[in-house]
Specification:
The complex is a heterodimer of chains A (607) and B (277). Chain A has 607 residues and is α/β, with parallel strands linked by helices. Chain A has 19 helices and 23 strands. Classes of the chains: A alpha/beta (607), B mainly alpha (277). Chain A: GO terms for molecular function: ATP binding; ATP hydrolysis activity.
């Protein structure tokens, strides 16, 4: 960018306050940066860093969330000249919102109104801002849908949001934001709720639109890999303050601030584990204690043997709620986990990876198949015996805010399994619980706290302590780190690897995040439409992927390295077909080719 | 003993104050005030507006409204709280089991509840109390049964929601029995809904008692109850509005107090509203 180009946006000493119960709380302070016309500026930070507050201030939308801009200037170069957004009146703001600044939100599900057709939602803004007639607005809407490359745009206009897939909905949202040819597009975590292939599509779409129209993009994200793929310049924020600012290459290659360095160190990068046989703990800055890598025992001994596991959920319908169809969640899946080993199941949402984990525990009842845990047949157990079998396998859930009972002290929650399984009595319970808190690196004083008094990462440690209480042989971790900030995610991943190295526990690690999976697993299974399409050692799956879907998935993963941009110009992946089948539909069995020892690939190609 | 923080707010204090005051009146008014003061008729001062002799005015028979409202408190409060308690005792386990067990159990129990819901609550109470006969105990049973389906429905919905939370599944894999899961993990999490619904039910129960009394099935004249007083006032609204306002204000204050008390109680039970302990 040339220095004499007038910036499109100049934020100077922004300060935003929220009304708290005991006086104002500062959301953002001393934040200054500029956005040049046509550039992509990424604001990156962890939760609570103030990145969304900053972007909402630029639209003055922060006021609807109870915030107030109490200081600084927000200059925006509109068509009518430079305006200070911080002091603009409502009429000026209405003219800017949607017309000169477009906005895309995180959740495509909720940013479209479910009761209006796509046409109605799109033409509203066009008629208001551009003064188009009904017919002209319709034509423009169609043109916009074509611009964002939605297949069959004419049909989409007549459809309602629920009839579109997540990726298509986000395309509609982008089309709407683009409707009035804005000078600035604000994208607030636009791909966080999307699957990795759809994320790649949306990122490439935003890139192309930016180049074609010359608009600037303010991109808010927590994901360093996404930053590396799309940013021209980067602003790093932490706790309401600006930490560092610079061109993307410089931020990644030679970060100046410790915080940026720590943030980057915590991000797993796809491909960095090439040539290594065992999982490797992350090297965290400020926590130099060496975590032992979990090596496999010399003689592999199978712990969990899953064969031909099939789980279907009935779809009920009609007056008497008969089963009218089946969701084929898990379809003929077989695999083995050895003692002390981590098997990762990866795939996109709806591929059946979580159902698979739940079926093994019988939290969801499988339709057929066998599950042997240490030679014990789990499927055949009575409810009583199943409860006893849970001593050997535990689960750590995704959302640390929902997996702890808000009305129970943490001590009680961790002590429960000890008492229920008769593992400890009386004062022994207290000692064991204290030991478990030590084990997951939580202060003992937390024992008498309630869940809401802890952060997300701390809660997830409690959930792990609860799972460890019974000394299980297998822990099923269902997206256990997905809801956490990257630095916390890295700590929890290291904790899991440390526990494996010391206690020899096996993990079934369910995740959608390929880079995390590469870091933690010994073996990897890729799931697609309920089936395991490829399984093998980590090196086999990541370095010599054989199934078409595995390759698609790997090509879509953003890499946290601005010199390796994989996001192309126009990606359009095939959407995942529906897993709902009519009653009586019996798909064929899963048949595999063994392409290398232990490396199995599903025979038929993607259907 | 220290009052929980949620009660130390102005709303919480007002709630406690009102509830205590009304309970006090219900308990000691009949002890201090001779029962016949509420039924003594002053034929020269029928439908009298508030005067020194009758601070809150009189009704169509010249009975003093202040004494009637004070002495009617016990009947109204006793019937309403006993009836709501009864609907909780029946509705809570019904809703919990229905929401937790699901499938056939849920279907059978909820069809039963739906059948009861199909009748207007007052009609149901009317039928029950007509069959059982008009007395205090049967009025309580009638209102209690009539209110149960609403509570059971709400509790079932909440139990259904809570039962599929990850913390309940986690507790299940932690080896808890069904009974422990319900009592330790589901019940505390649905209490807020139960408390809120109960305070609303109390207000309706007071009015339901009035309806029954009006039809000759609840409190028997000349005894006083708030509901009976409101019902009796309707013919004189244009000439003597205080006959409705006095018992109406008593009901309104009670409901207001109960609502504020209920909110504070709900917050006091919620660990999230406290600081680190």
């Amino acid at each position: 960018m040339l220095d004499d180009v007038r910036p499109l946006v100049a934020i100077d000493n922004l300060r935003v306050e929220f009304q708290g119960e005991e006086g104002p709380i500062v959301g953002v302070e001393d934040v200054s940066f500029t956005i040049a016309p046509g550039e992509t500026l990424c604001v990156v930070g962890e939760s609570g860093s103030g990145k969304s507050v900053t972007s909402l201030s630029l639209m003055r939308l922060v006021e609807f969330g109870g915030g107030r801009i109490t200081g600084g200037r927000l200059e925006f170069a509109s068509a009518a000249g430079v305006i200070d957004v911080a002091g603009a009146d409502d009429a000026t703001m209405r003219a800017i919102r949607g017309k000169e600044i477009g906005m895309i939100f995180q959740e495509p599900m909720t940013s479209l109104n479910p009761v209006f057709t796509i046409e109605r939602q799109m033409t509203d803004g066009l008629r208001m801002h551009m003064g188009l007639s009904g017919e002209a607005a319709r034509a423009r809407a169609l043109e916009l849908l074509k611009q964002v490359r939605i297949p069959e745009p004419e049909r989409r206009l007549k459809q309602y949001p629920h009839e579109l897939s997540g990726g298509m909905r986000q395309r509609v949202v982008i089309a709407m934001a683009m409707a009035c040819k804005p000078r600035l597009l604000i994208a607030d975590e636009p791909t966080t709720a999307l699957d990795v292939t759809i994320q790649a599509e949306i990122l490439s779409l935003i890139n192309r639109l930016k180049r074609e129209t010359g608009m600037a993009v303010l991109f808010i994200t927590h994901d360093m890999a996404v930053v590396a793929q799309v940013a021209d310049r980067v602003v790093v924020m932490c706790q309401g303050k600006l930490v560092e600012e610079g061109p993307v290459e410089q931020i990644f290659a030679s970060p100046k601030q410790d915080y940026t360095r720590a943030l980057l160190a915590a991000v797993p990068r796809l491909g960095e584990m090439r040539g290594k046989s065992a999982p490797e703990p992350m090297r965290l800055i400020g926590d130099e204690a060496d975590v032992r890598a979990p090596l496999l025992p010399q003689a592999p001994e199978p712990l969990l043997e899953v064969s031909n596991l099939t789980t279907r959920y009935p779809v009920k319908g009609g007056l008497i709620r008969r089963t009218v169809a089946n969701v084929h969640a898990v379809e003929d899946v077989s695999f083995t986990i050895n003692k002390g080993e981590t098997l990762a199941l990866v795939g996109e949402s709806g591929c059946g990876k979580s159902s698979c984990g739940r079926s093994i525990l019988r939290l969801s009842e499988p339709t057929s198949g066998t599950v042997l845990l240490d030679k014990c047949d789990i499927i055949g157990l009575s409810a009583r015996d199943l409860r006893r079998a849970w001593r050997d396998m535990q689960m750590v859930f995704q959302d640390p805010f929902a997996s702890l009972n808000p009305y129970m002290r943490l001590r009680e929650q961790v002590a429960e399994p000890l008492r229920n399984f008769g593992l400890a009595k009386g004062s022994e319970v207290e000692d064991r619980v204290a030991g478990l808190f030590d084990r997951v690196h939580l202060p003992r004083s937390f024992m008498s706290r309630f869940p809401h008094e802890l952060s997300g990462g701390q809660r997830q440690r409690v959930a792990i302590a609860r799972a460890l209480a019974v000394r299980p042989k297998l822990i099923i971790a269902d997206e256990s780190v997905s809801a956490l900030d990257v630095s916390v995610q890295a700590q929890v991943l290291n904790l899991m690897m440390e526990l494996q190295a010391e206690l020899g526990v096996s993990f079934l690690f369910i995740s959608h995040d390929m880079a995390v999976v590469e870091r933690v697993s010994h073996r990897v299974g890729v799931m697609y439409r309920g089936r395991l399409v490829e399984i093998g050692s980590r090196a086999q799956v990541f370095e010599t992927p054989r199934h078409e879907y595995t390759r698609t998935l790997l090509s879509a993963v953003p890499i946290a390295d601005p010199t390796r941009r994989t996001i192309g110009d126009d990606l359009n992946f095939r959407p995942i077909p529906s897993p709902v089948f009519p009653l009586g539909h019996e798909p064929g069995p899963s048949e595999y080719d063994e392409v290398a020892p232990g490396h199995l690939v599903l025979k038929d190609t993607m259907t | 003993m220290k009052l929980p923080a949620s009660f130390r707010t102005s709303k919480g204090m007002l709630g406690i104050g009102l509830v205590l005051a009304i309970l006090l009146i219900a308990v000691i008014a009949p002890v201090l005030i001779p029962a016949d003061w509420a039924t003594k008729m002053d034929m020269r001062a029928r439908l009298s507006p508030p005067t020194w002799a009758h601070p809150l005015g009189t009704d169509q028979l010249g009975r003093d409204l202040m004494y009637r409202v004070l002495l009617g408190a016990r009947t109204s409060i006793a019937i309403a709280s006993a009836a709501v308690l009864m609907s909780i005792v029946i509705g809570l386990p019904l809703g919990l089991i229905s929401g937790y067990a699901g499938r056939t159990t849920d279907n059978v129990l909820m069809r039963l509840v739906d059948t009861l819901l199909a009748f207007p609550a007052l009609l149901l109470a009317l039928t029950i109390s007509a069959v059982l006969g008009p007395n205090l105990q049967n009025t309580i049973i009638a209102i209690g049964i009539a209110f149960t389906p609403f509570l059971a429905r709400i509790i079932r919905g909440e139990a259904l929601r809570v039962a599929q939370m990850p913390y309940v599944e986690a507790a299940r894999t932690a080896g808890n029995s069904d009974a422990r899961l319900i009592v330790r993990h589901i019940l505390p999490n649905i209490m807020p809904a139960v408390i809120v619904q109960s305070t609303i039910s109390l207000a309706f129960a007071i009015l339901a008692e009035a309806g029954l009394s009006f039809l000759g099935l609840g409190t028997q004249p000349p005894d006083a109850s708030w509901g009976l007083m409101i019902q009796a006032s309707r013919d004189y609204l244009d000439r003597a509005p205080w006959t409705a306002l006095v018992p109406g204000a008593a009901v309104a204050l009670t409901v207001l107090g109960l609502n504020m008390f209920g909110d504070a109680l709900r917050d006091a039970l919620d660990p999230r509203s406290k600081g680190a302990s």
